Amino acid sequence: MNNGIGKKTVRDIDVHGRRVLVRADLNVPIENGVITDDTRIRESLPTIRYLLDQGAQVIVCSHLGRPKGPDPALSLAPVAGRMANLLGQEVLFAEDCVGPKAEAAVQAMGHHVLLLENLRFHPEEEKNDPEFARQLASLAEIFVNDAFGAAHRAHASTEGVTHYLPAVAGLLMEKEVKYLGALVANPPHPFAAVVGGAKVSSKLPAIQHLLPKVDLLLVGGGMANTFLKAKGYEIGASLVEDDLLDAARAVMRDAETRGVELHLPVDVVVASRFAADAETATVPVGEVPAGWLILDIGPETVRQFANALQRAKAVVWNGPMGVFELEPFASGSFDLARAIAGLNAVTVVGGGETAAVVAAAGLQDRFTHVSTGGGASLEMLEGKTLPGVAALLDA
Ligand code: 3PG
Ligand code: MG
Description:
This is Phosphoglycerate kinase. By secondary structure, the protein is an alpha/beta fold.
């Protein structure tokens, strides 16, 4: 049976006794040498464990940050340590991802997991240089792409390498594409999209792609300001994209034509300035004081959004409802996260900031799927084909 993603996965090939190169997205936040969020490392473990159980030799590679060349601050060495702890077994580390150091490490790895140094220490990685891709591929016999968070990049380790090795999806990649692609393309109804975040401009393609598929569209976050202004509300000194007022009007008209129930904020948390210690108030959308900023949705909006979502059988959520990093403007995002987590529905969270909201609220286990991708999950919601997925063998 087709797995719904249209691509071969690790389950479809025999890896026993083979050297397998796994591209993971181990691009985790590191502050002063300390990993502050290891979600992406943990999410990469099922594929690694599966391959080990099948008797494969597992070589893992990833990028970290955006170095312009070798940069000790962006070494993956600390990730090897954390991966070993989480895996409960030793993880060897190679100081380069290609060339003599990588080759020697592969020769010596035996049945240990081997993590290669940051791919982006070589500019050829991002250039998708064929010779670099060939060198990387030469370390293994099979390629597994589990780096959903980097699948929107056509780099040597996500695309180039597939020209030299049989290439299949890892288990995380499969799960991500299933929930952000297959589910969104063919959802159970009623299907709801909740979109937020600062800017309409960054979410417009996703909204346009989702509109024909959804029954409910809920808009919050800074981007709702542009919709409110387009409807004639005074929004004070709030963030707005004046060049997109017509686009917002078009979305509202399109929603109406298609019979999509569109919800905008009815009340908002406003502040005298953009700061945690600013003067704040909760007001109906028609009463934003001149010079003040809308920084969160209000409690009545949360109530209405939660109510509307009650009938949804599937919900996809991308973008926070307010400036959740600042405590006075976090309730909208956290309360909505709790409401969505409590639904009897398939609940999918696009990655990046929205995943951070869910993690900060401690709710990650109460969603059906929380994406590990930021840009990649947004591109999936835009209906784009990701180069890292397209390059894999068809099922
Ligand atoms: C991410 O964190 O968004 C992914 O790891 C991709 O990283 P990039 O945006 O630097 O390509
Ligand atoms: Mg990014």
